[in-house]
Amino acid sequence: MMRHAFFPLCLLIATFGFLVAGLHSLPRSAAFAPQAAPAEKAPSGNATSRRTRPPAESRRPPREALFEGWPKPKLALVLTGEQLGYIEPCGCAGLENQKGGLRRRHTFLQTLAAKGWPVVALDNGGLISRFGVQTEIKYETTALGLKAMGYAAIGFGEADLKLPAGRLLSVAGSDPSQPPEAQANPFISANAGLFGLDSGFLHGYRVIEAGGMRLGVTAVIGDQAQRAINNPDIELAPAGKALTKVMPELKKSGCDYLVLLAHATVKESEDLAKKFPDFDVVVTAGGNDEPPNESQTVEGGKSLLVQVGHKGMYAIVLGLFEDAKHKVRYERVPLDDRFSDSSDMDRLLEDYQQQLEALGWSDLGIEALRHPRATSAKDIAGTFIGSKACADCHEDAFAIWEKTPHAHATETLAGLKPPRQFDPECISCHATGWNFQEFVPYQSGYESLKKTPLLAGNGCENCHGPGAAHVAAEEDAGTDEKARQSLREAMELSFDEARDKLCISCHDLDNDPNYKPEAFDEHYWPAIKH
Amino acid sequence: MKTYWAIGLSVVAAVGGIVIFTLVQYGLVGAADPLAIDIASTSRANASAGQVANGQSPAAAAVPIAVVDKPVFHFGRVRNHTKGHRHEFLVRNEGNAPLQFNLTDVSCTKCTYVDLPDREIAPGKTGRVVVRWDIEKLEETFRQSATVYTNDPKHEKLQFVVTGDILEPLRAAPQDVRLTGVASADRTTASVLLSAYFADDLKIERHEFLKADTADSFEVAYSPVAKDELAHLALSGVEARITIKPGLPLGAFRQTIRFVTNLKEAPHIEVNVSGLVVSDITVAGPNWDPGRGTLKLGAVNRESGAKRTLRLMVKGPHQEGLVLKVKKRKPSLLKATIGNFQRVNNGKTTLIPIEIEVPAKSRPVNFMGGDAKLGEIFISTNKPEFGDIKLLVQFAVEG
Are residues A359 and B291, on separate chains, in Cβ contact within 8 Å? Predict the structure, then answer.
């Protein structure tokens, strides 16, 4: 009887298996749907968002639907800005948890174009935030990227205007002999002039025809931001005064939609919107890292105030429609990993890394700092020696370290496509003997895999300090015992200091949004405990 | 034998079911278009359809309705480096089904946290969403948000915002002074506004240059700031004018200035000064690589040729009486034309356009670098300090 029952039983199990598959693949109400995410390691989000999980659950919210209910717009304005040098997302939390980057931005724009939407892309400026040769190259790379993406207008941030005039002229300058309407250069500013406001190297506005509309766009740098610009080759004017001059030009051009790119605080941008109510949209660089998820109208005015956030993590899309009920729709688009990497931008970023490699630290203007422990340039208290020297006495700790990702940190960079170990902003946390947040080496810190192989990896001395003096004292039998003990104590690192100050220097918000002191106790320390 | 087949088939079917479930659930199969991901709206549509299929009109079905009267909390002013701030937001359920909170999200994982003491709110009742935050910021304002996902089909996401001003005893604006284009022969100045937010009598008692090797190139002078020119919310302020004297070598420079104050809470503050001392003569223009001193024209179409205008930027006293001549061109097919001098920036800079041309119908050549070398244009000046200016040109004329 068992034998006769066996076949039907097997058939029943098989049917059950398929039924389960079928039922679970049907969509269900959001309240009850197990969320689509691998759980523990990959909370969705990036440098500025993380999901906290209800106890005993490990789900992540569904990825937000985009452009829900949108018909094809008459025109789609894609608004970005404040990239601040974050040309690509990166970090230990995994790219699936981070947002932004030129590659994804390009793919997003291509996606809209593939849908047949007329698109005009505008950037508020703030392409970079730091200073120096690497930053100049990054500015040029980003500008090339935005031009390749077809950006119609790009403003300037304060750090952009701190660049040497030569670089600005090469990258963002117009040809003064050409009238504004013949200019292909998308960089504009109403109140910043390269070699003078009337030099003709920067135009005050652009008129763009798209989707059957005539768009007038101008850009200003806010009065507060201007205070930080000390560039003798840039002439600045108050934003309000400059707009008073530009507005009649825009109106004369017969524009039916006006946009102001304001690299200014939210308050300054609101004040400008109230003073110049003809602007339909005021894009502001102020506000939070994460822009609001719905549109805002200026209080007491009619202009839309759009925050673009920071670090280029989001693009804001304003859809313009003929529909009287929904003339403008707003969508905040996270540039997450649903957008694959654009191969055009891949090539650009490869070229960027190659330039860094070709120049080397010296031509990048990178000057090694004296380590704070050293009292003079010759003091070996500030000299790095490499983790292998530590292994002579601290065998167990070394063996543990060797198995951690810290030991392979430089290798990780070298294995990327393109390799990143020539990038100061990457190597500072991926090798031994660099100042993590200044992106410069200490004297005797890592130089290259060839010259300083012992300083590859994020080694012992990054946390415990330069070890040369300590090693020398241990090896020299004649060392005074008090001095030897003092050097040992100097190499000690307290748990609290590691958890609260040190680890976060590299596992910071941009590179590891998961890191918190509580997470240090639960996850991070156990992984490297020694 | 048949038994084994049957067992095997059953196992395969069960495994197949689990695999299909996993693939669909984790979105690994489905739409290729990134904009097509729309789990939320599809589920809402199905929920509504389900209700209709059951003979209920959607309007009559039990649904929760989340209402938040005050989603934004202005906390006013708080001191920087303080932790444990909190606020309770109230959420009212005006629907006729329990309102459930499922997941949470924050805009700043290291400074903003959300707790849900009430995971479910009965119809007609009010529940709490607690947002906590720590203040460790360099900026003057704080604005972070917490998002809570609900089962209210019209309000799947509720966003709660906390915002306010961050104060600290002493602030420098800017904290990092960056000076571009410092002419080696000129004095350059920059200002820093030092502001006290809890004291109305800020004084700078002295300053120290922490980098000894360039200390002699810097000077600082002070003046008090009038009440109406104080930074927002500051009680007192001092303007520090930093001057860089002539004589710094070409290239990047850094200095850190420590200002020692009369404030017990903030006895000192450091300001970084960095910048670039530039030569009195530099080149700029489209396709110009300043690092390699090269104009990159790339492959030039033989029929149309190529033309670019570079600009020499000359500063300092050598602007007066400067004469330039094209001395040498290699290969000779390259053309270089020096344009009219233009005095700009209130006379501080002279711009001299130099048009570089590969004429149309030039013979095929390769000056792309490497073994092929690069083209060269030498411009002589009448200023011994400048010597000859060498412009490299990377180009090839295709046949």
Answer: yes
A227 has a chain B CB within 8 A of its CB? yes
- Average confidence score pLDDT of chain A: 86
Say how far apart CA A40 and CA A32 lie, in whole Å.
19
Inter-residue contact A391 to A436 (CB < 8 Å): no
Residue B345 C-alpha, separation from nearest chain A C-alpha, in angstroms: 5
- Please list, in sequence order, all residues whose beta carbon lies within 8 angstroms of the beta carbon of residue B93, skipping any fewer than 6 positions away: B64, B65, B66, B67, B99, B121, B122, B123, B124, B125, B126, B127
CB atoms within 10 A of CB B233: 13
Q: Please answer yes or no on whether B102 and A162 come within 8 Å at the CB atom.
A: no
- Which residues 6+ apart lie within 8 Å of A84 measured at CB? A126, A127, A128, A129, A157, A159, A310, A311, A312
**Which amino acid would we find at residue B43?**
S
Q: Out of A10, A33, A367, name the one closest to residue B10 (CB).
A: A10
Which helix (H) or strand (E) segment holds residue B222: the answer is: strand B218-224
- Lowest mean pLDDT, pick from A26-40, A380-394, A415-429, B71-85: A26-40
| Residue A430: predicted pLDDT | 96
DSSP secondary structure of B226-275: PGGGSPTT-SEEEEEEEEEPTTPPSEEEEEEEEEEES-SS--EEEEEEEE
Tokens read off for A175: 């040809």
pLDDT in tens, B64-93: 999 999 999 999 988 888 888 999 999 999
ipTM: 0.74
Q: Give CA–CA dist A379/B6, Å, rounded.
A: 78
Report the alpha-carbon distance of residue A157 to residue A221 in Å, rounded: 7
The answer to whether A110 faces chain B, any CB pair under 8 Å, is: no
Please count the residue pairs, one from chain A and one from chain B, whose beta carbons lie less than 8 angstroms apart. 252
Give contacts of A 313-352 with B, CB under 8 A: 338-340
Angle value at C-alpha A334, between A77 and A325, nearest 5 degrees: 45
pLDDT at position A351 over 90: yes
Q: Is the pLDDT of residue A42 over 60?
A: no
**Residues on chain A touching B183 (C-beta within 8 angstroms):** 232
Contact A54 B114 (CB under 8 A): no
List, in sequence order, every residue forming a beta bridge with B113; answer none if it has no partner: B132
What tens digit of pLDDT does each residue of B353-396 get?
A: 999 999 999 999 999 988 779 999 999 999 988 889 999 999 99
Per residue in A313-349, pLDDT (tens digit) is: 999 999 999 987 789 999 999 999 999 999 999 999 9
Chain A residues touching residue B3 (CB < 8 angstroms):
3, 6
- The alpha-carbon gap from B327 to the nearest alpha carbon of chain A, in Å, equals 24
Substitution target from A170, A338, A355, A500 for chain B, most B beta carbons within 10 A = A170
Alpha-carbon torsion angle A19, A24, A29, A30, nearest 10: 170
Asked if B291's CB is within 8 angstroms of A27's CB, the reply is no
pLDDT in tens, B202-253: 999 999 999 888 899 999 999 999 998 898 889 999 999 999 998 888 888 8
Report CB contact under 8 Å: B25, A24: yes
Verify whether the Cβ–Cβ distance A115 to B174 is below 8 Å.
Answer: no
Higher-confidence residue of A274 and A8: namely A274
Q: Are A307 and A288 in contact (CB under 8 A)?
A: yes
**Residue B159 is nearest to which of A20, A293, A365, comparing CB atoms?**
A293
Q: Please indicate, yes or no, whether the overall pTM of this predicted structure exceeds 0.95.
A: no
**pLDDT value of residue A33:** 28
Contacts of A321 (CB under 8 A, 6+ apart): A71, A73, A74, A327, A328, A329
Q: Which tokens hold the place of B344?
A: 């700009």
Q: Mean per-residue pLDDT for A451-475? A: 95
Mean pLDDT along residues A226-231: 88
User: In sequence order, what are the residues at sequence separation of 6 or more whose Cβ sits closer than 8 angstroms to the Cβ of residue A4?
Assistant: none
